[in-house]
Amino acid sequence: MNELKLPSMNASVLSSDALQKVAAEAVRRSHAASPSGQRKLPLRVGSRASPLALWQTRTFLTRLTRFCPVLRDMGAFQEHQISTEGDRNLTQRLAEIGGKGLFAKEIHEALVAGRIDFAVHSLKDLETNLPPGLVLACTLKREDARDAIILRDRTLKVDPSDPYACLPEGALIGCASVRRQAQMLSRRPDLRFGLLRGNVQTRLDKLQAGACDATLLALAGLRRLGMEDRVDIVLEPDQMLPAAGQGIVGVTVRESDTELRELLSAIEDPEARAVSTAERALLAELDGSCRTPIGGYARIENGVLKLTGMIASEDGTFLIRREIAGAPLEAARMGTELAEELRRDTPAAIFAEMIRA
Ligand SMILES: NCc1[nH]cc(CCC(=O)O)c1CC(=O)O
After folding, report:
1. Is 238 a catalytic residue?
2. 259-268, pLDDT tens digit by residue?
3. Of 22, 151, 158, 303, which is least packed with CB atoms within 10 Å of its CB?
C-alpha cells in the first residue's frame, strides 16, 4: 500500500525558490539518468477522454510547467487519451459492472507497460490498492468536496436547512452512485432511483430531456467545467458525506521512476495528501467496492485532521457515521481505526450483505 504512505512533507516548508531548485535538479538528474544523457521526451501523460478528465490533465500540466518552466521550453508533454471500461459501459450501474479501478485499468496497463509515463485521475475513481509497481506520486489541492443536486424543475422552492424537502413525493432521481442513493433514501425513503450514466454534460442533457426529476453530481466537476450555475442545491457533508478523494486530482507513476516521482512530489499539496490518505485508508479497510455505500471526508482545522466516515445499506435503512480527530501525520492510521469502528458498529448480517460479492 505504497500510496497510503505519507511522503516527507518538506515541500510544504520550502520556499518557492527552493522548490524551483528541487524541480530543476530532478529534471537535470532525469536527463543524466538515461544512457544518452537525455531523458526520453516528451513525457507521455495518460488521461481519460472526457471533458472533465482532459480539463484536469491540462490543468495539472499547466501547474507543472508553471512550477518548472524548463519543461515548457522542451515541449515536454504528449497527451494520450485512453478509453476505460467505465467510459464504455454506460448501461449498467457502476456497482453492477463491479471490479475496482473501473476508470483506471486500461490507463494503468499502459503505465505499467511503459507506453505512458504518468497518468492524471480523479482520485475518487482510483482504486485504493494500485497495481504493483505503481504509486500515487502527487495529489493536487482539493476543489470543493461537496455533492450538489441539479433539479429539472428549477422553480421548486429550496430550503437549505432541509435540502431534500423540495423534491416531490416519489420523485425519480437519476444517479449511478450507491453512496448518494443510500444517503438520500435514509432521509427520503419515498424517492425512486434510476440510472443516469455518461459524462457530466450527457447527464445534464438527459435530465433536461425529462429522464428524471433531479440528479446529483460532484460540485468539483461542475465547477471545473464551468457549469456551477446549473447547481440548485449544495449539500453539506452532514447532509451528504462525499466519497473518499472527491474533488482531488491525483497522479500515478511507476514506482521505479524516481526522477519523475521527485518532480511530481514537489508540486503536491500536503493537505490534499493528508486528507486523501485518511479517506483512502478508511475505504481500503472497509473493502470499499463500488457496491458499498461508503463515504469518507477529512479536513484539517487548526492543524487537526478530522475524518468522518459513513457506511450504509443500499436502501438507506441502515446508515451510521463516525468521526475521529488527530495529527495529520497519523492520517493512515486514523482511516484504518475509523473503518474498524464503523465495522464494529455495523450488525454482522448487514455488513455481510453490504460486501457480498
Ligand atoms: N465517477 C465520476 C466522477 N469522478 C470524479 C468526478 C467529479 C470530480 C471529482 O470528484 O474530483 C465525477 C463526476 C461526479 O461524481 O459528479
Report:
1. no
2. 899 999 989 9
3. 303
**Ligand 1, closest atom to CA 224?**
8
- 67 contacts 264 by C-beta, under 8 angstroms: no
Average pLDDT, the chain: 87
- Cell 428524471 sits on residue: 212
**DSSP three-state, residue 236:** coil
Q: Could you tell me if the ipTM is greater than 0.90?
A: yes
Q: What nine digits make up the cell of 217?
A: 453530481
Cα(206)–Cα(308) distance, rounded to whole angstroms? 33
How far, in Å, from the CA of 84 to the mean position of ligand 1?
A: 15
CB count, 10 Å around CB of 324? 20
Q: Which ligand 1 atom is nearest residue 145's CA?
A: 10
Q: Report whether 266 contacts 12 (CB < 8 A).
A: no
Q: How many CA atoms lie within 13 A of 75 on its CB side?
A: 0
Beta partners for 134? 254
Q: How far is the CA of 246 from the centre of ligand 1 (A)?
A: 7
Q: CB neighbours of 23 closer than 8 A, spacing ≥ 6?
A: 67, 68, 70, 263, 266, 267
pLDDT at 87: 76
For residue 53, the CA-to-ligand 1 centroid distance in Å is 9
Mapped onto helix, strand or coil, the DSSP state of residue 23 is helix
pTM (2 d.p.):
0.88
Residues 6+ apart with CB under 8 A from 24: 68, 70
pLDDT recorded at residue 13:
42
Q: What is the DSSP letter of 279?
A: H
Q: Which of 355, 354, 284 is nearest to 317 (CA)?
A: 354
- Amino acid identity of residue 58, one-letter, is R
